[in-house]
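Hey, can you fold this?
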Amino acid sequence: MPSPSVENYLKAIFHLSQRQEGWVKTKQLAERLEVSLPSATNMMQSLAEAGLVDYRPYHGVTLTGTGRLEALRVVRVHRLLEEFLVRTLGLGWDEVHDEAELLEHAVSDKLAARMDAFLGYPQVDPHGDPIPTADGDLVRSEGPRLAELQPGQRFRVVRVFDQDPERLRNLASWGLGLEGEGVVVAARGDAERQVKMASDSAPRWLPEPSTRALQVELL
């Protein structure tokens, strides 16, 4: 298995590549992993020599086929751990990310397979993020963000693109956890939305960061 540092870089490249088109910049990696630019550059060169990335100075980096499979293996373990911690130990969705970050490097493929079977082969983790299969297949998550909805449209929350514990706790307390259902009551500006959740007694205005972080399906 690659070192934890290599796994962290591959996972970071994967996540950044999911959010944008084209090559991932070395500066983006350095900022995400909170390392110096020279350290990130040196690692890109090492990963390229190992055949895990295609690295072009001043242009960026992409995962090779081998690198993508390795990144997906780490993502799979991380998301299975989050689901396991919620279901078996009762941790909240605001608590599991950091714990999974610590544990993911110590979990073998065999243990990951056992967790997967124990959990009943879940398709998503507690945040609605799709869990890759052992073969590296990943179902792409589709659907609008809450910020795109207009007054009168009903929705169900299917994914949250946020790992900040305080914001996750707030969303849960407002009924905006996974499977939470509601209706958009009013819109303000490009992304602020007033929503009435089935579990909440009164409409609530949500700021742009929250509405853009929530992926929904229309009802």
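Oh, and this one too while you're at it.
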Amino acid sequence: MKIKILYTALFVILFEIAFAGSYYVSTTGDNTLSGSISEPFKTISKAATMVAAGDTVYVEAGTYIEVNITPAASGKKGAMIVFKPLPGTGDVIIKHTGTSIDDDTPVFMLSNKSFIWIEGFIFEGFKYGKASIYMNNSEGNVVINNRFLNLGNGEVESWDGNQVVALFNSTRNVVTNNFFQNIYGDGVNVNSQKSTQNLVCNNTFIGFKGKLRSWGGELFVLTSH
């Protein structure tokens, strides 16, 4: 009986590995194509609608203006969904589309999604939007080795605006080895008593400015950490 269970488990693991896919994104791509390396999509958002557990989205160097990048599914333990730059092609810069303090959308929307891995991107030069990466009711996601540069502004006073990485009602997520510079707002916001066992460590903050809250308070400036 134990041998049968072992073979069944091994089959499931090998099945997931065999059917894990890769999707590619390029500034010269086309969202009507297949998303293969020779027929890349144009947007990260389009690739996100295609993913399943174990898939990887490779993004070619360039600047992408994106909002609400929402994976179609969650990953699994041992079969995470990965978003990362295509090795050897250079920097991937991601900007938000927002133009108003009323904009309540993030760049990556990971609410109700788990086991998503976001690595190696540069989020740079946008003032508005809920967050660069937003999680609500999420578990097991990893945000690692990203750079967050020149984000936010002093106009936004809402409690959930101008966040960089936000975790709300979320557990066992990891935010590590990221670099934050010239940030105006909440850097890593871990909110609610339901947010437990999250690991936030080894991140660097330079020129970090906490936003003014609508209910009062004074501006807090952190020059380096």
